[in-house]
Amino acid sequence: MSTPFYVSPQQAMADRAEYARKGIARGRSLVVLQYADGIVFVGENPSRALHKFSEIYDRIGFAAAGKYNEYENLRIGGVRYADLRGYTYDRDDVTARGLANVYAQTLGTIFSSAAEKPYEVELVVAEVGETPAGDQIYRLPHDGSIVDEHGSVAVGGNAEQISSYLDQRHQDGMSLAEALKLAVQSLSRDTNGSEREIPAERLEVAVLDRTRPQKRKFKRIVGRQLAALLERDGAETAAEAEAQAPDEKE
Amino acid sequence: MDFLSEHQPELLPGNRQLPPVQGVVEAPHGTTIVSVTFPGGVVLAGDRRATMGNVIAQRDIEKVFPADEYSAVGIAGTAGLAVEMVKLFQLELEHFEKVEGAQLSLEGKANRLSTMIRSNLGMAMQGLAVVPLFAGYDVDRGKGRIFSYDVTGGRSEEHGYAATGSGSVFARGAMKKLFRDDLTEDQATTLVVQALYDAADDDSATGGPDVARRIYPIVTVITEDGFRRLTEEESSGIARAILERRLAQPDGPRAELL
């Protein structure tokens, strides 16, 4: 009869975290930024059908990096949670904080249960408020912790580098075109510091726009609209980019 | 709905047991809903009265609701149950759209509503029927379509115009004489208010435009651009124009004899 090896809990957790982190790092990164009229989600996604971002409820959006089947599972769970809440009580009673808590519980339970493999996902739950001050962005790493973020957040493979890049450059009250441009810039920087071009058709972009007259504020930006936004900003901010170029070299 | 029936069945309308009752349960009933198609869309409208027996239970009830961006449902029958059914229907369409990433087809929506009405059959047998009218813009075919239902959930597509509720007989008669294939949006909205006026004229449970209290029919239009409810100003404009003409001609516009 064989005796099982003793593995210290610290080691077991460290191994699981390592496993999850590696899985997440294989996927492409995505960023979530606040801008003047709401929150924009930007990511590189070659697929048109398998979305990284989606609508959860009126004011709540969802973004995920990592393994598709796992986060899709969590997304549908979130939609169910939100719809059930909204139906039982009122549409206003569905909040990003409540949803983030449910996700944190789920991820935490899966992470620490020995019977299951940890989920290789990192989520962002964002809620757009009536004013920029009311916006909420929560980042949920694989282990079930919640991080309350402001301004900008990046998740996925290259997240640390991207978020430090964003932290330095993100300002409150940016226009959508400016925020989008910043997001694309940050995503197009590789780990080794070199830059590459991401064509518009490989970008997935969605917004939670507080100025939308409908109750449901989530909207995907695709096709011509996206191209127009990217272009507009190219023309308008070309001069600014020139001016900023010297700073970037420092 | 499937998830709800597993998870929290008590929230579903069809799953409640009713105590055995003698006779008919008294509850507010909504009355007349009318709908007309026109090239490019469909109009759905309803009066504002809810009755309980011979009493007017509510003067300004709203009986026409958006189901989603491209469809709307108008309800006749037991108001409380109908409003709950609409709420669940809206939830289901939205839920499907979010989970699947695509909207249900208009047929799919109509079928779903049919199932929901059928699940209410037990209540309907006790006098608490809900009979909606479903109208929407079919994005695939590029035209407005109307579906009517019976208490058992039987669904039938109506061409041109349709009405449901206690005043529907009179409204349908009016629409039959006024309807044409080439209505514009403005003419279609006028037509439905005319029909509601005629229904209110002959059916005591249907409310006409109430100028004193500023209560006018709810008129909604669904086109390629989505669902739009006419503002109070617009619907009062239509109602007042009709009222003005009816002062001279109480029975409304006359159709040709031959």
Automatic annotation (TrEMBL), chain A:
Q: Does the keyword Nucleus apply?
A: no
- Signal peptide positions (record): none
Pathway-wise, it operates in: Protein degradation; proteasomal Pup-dependent pathway
Report the activity regulation comment.
Answer: The formation of the proteasomal ATPase ARC-20S proteasome complex, likely via the docking of the C-termini of ARC into the intersubunit pockets in the alpha-rings, may trigger opening of the gate for substrate entry. Interconversion between the open-gate and close-gate conformations leads to a dynamic regulation of the 20S proteasome proteolysis activity.
Q: Which superkingdom is the protein from?
A: Bacteria
Q: Which PROSITE patterns match?
A: PROTEASOME_ALPHA_2 (PS51475)
Q: Name one GO molecular function term.
A: threonine-type endopeptidase activity
Which biological process annotations from GO are given for this protein?
A: modification-dependent protein catabolic process; proteasomal protein catabolic process
Cellular component terms per the entry's GO annotation:
cytoplasm; proteasome core complex, alpha-subunit complex
UniProt entry keywords in alphabetical sequence: Cytoplasm, Proteasome
Q: Does the record carry Cytoplasm as a key word?
A: yes
Record localization: Cytoplasm
State the oligomer form and interacting partners.
Answer: The 20S proteasome core is composed of 14 alpha and 14 beta subunits that assemble into four stacked heptameric rings, resulting in a barrel-shaped structure. The two inner rings, each composed of seven catalytic beta subunits, are sandwiched by two outer rings, each composed of seven alpha subunits. The catalytic chamber with the active sites is on the inside of the barrel. Has a gated structure, the ends of the cylinder being occluded by the N-termini of the alpha-subunits. Is capped by the proteasome-associated ATPase, ARC.
Family annotation (NCBIfam families): 20S_bact_alpha (TIGR03691)
Which family does this protein fall into? Answer: Belongs to the peptidase T1A family.
Record's function text: Component of the proteasome core, a large protease complex with broad specificity involved in protein degradation.
Under which name does UniProt file this protein? Proteasome subunit alpha
Lineage runs: Bacteria, Bacillati, Actinomycetota, Actinomycetes, Kitasatosporales
The encoding gene is prcA
TrEMBL record, chain B:
Tell me the GO BP annotations in alphabetical order.
Answer: modification-dependent protein catabolic process; proteasomal protein catabolic process
Q: Which InterPro entries match?
A: Ntn_hydrolases_N, Pept_T1A_subB, Proteasome_sua/b, Proteasome_suB-type, PSB_actinobac
> Any known activators or inhibitors?
The formation of the proteasomal ATPase ARC-20S proteasome complex, likely via the docking of the C-termini of ARC into the intersubunit pockets in the alpha-rings, may trigger opening of the gate for substrate entry. Interconversion between the open-gate and close-gate conformations leads to a dynamic regulation of the 20S proteasome proteolysis activity.
Protein location: Cytoplasm
Q: What class of enzyme is it?
A: hydrolase
Reaction(s) catalysed by this chain's protein: Cleavage of peptide bonds with very broad specificity
| Maturation propeptide residues | 1-30
Fetch the Pfam families from UniProt. Answer: Proteasome
SUPFAM superfamilies cross-referenced by the UniProt entry: N-terminal nucleophile aminohydrolases (Ntn hydrolases)
- PROSITE patterns membership: PROTEASOME_BETA_2
The UniProt subunit note reads as follows: The 20S proteasome core is composed of 14 alpha and 14 beta subunits that assemble into four stacked heptameric rings, resulting in a barrel-shaped structure. The two inner rings, each composed of seven catalytic beta subunits, are sandwiched by two outer rings, each composed of seven alpha subunits. The catalytic chamber with the active sites is on the inside of the barrel. Has a gated structure, the ends of the cylinder being occluded by the N-termini of the alpha-subunits. Is capped by the proteasome-associated ATPase, ARC.
Name under which the protein is recorded: Proteasome subunit beta
Q: Which organism is it from?
A: Streptomyces minutiscleroticus
Question: Which lineage ranks, top first, belong to the organism behind this chain?
Answer: Bacteria, Bacillati, Actinomycetota, Actinomycetes, Kitasatosporales
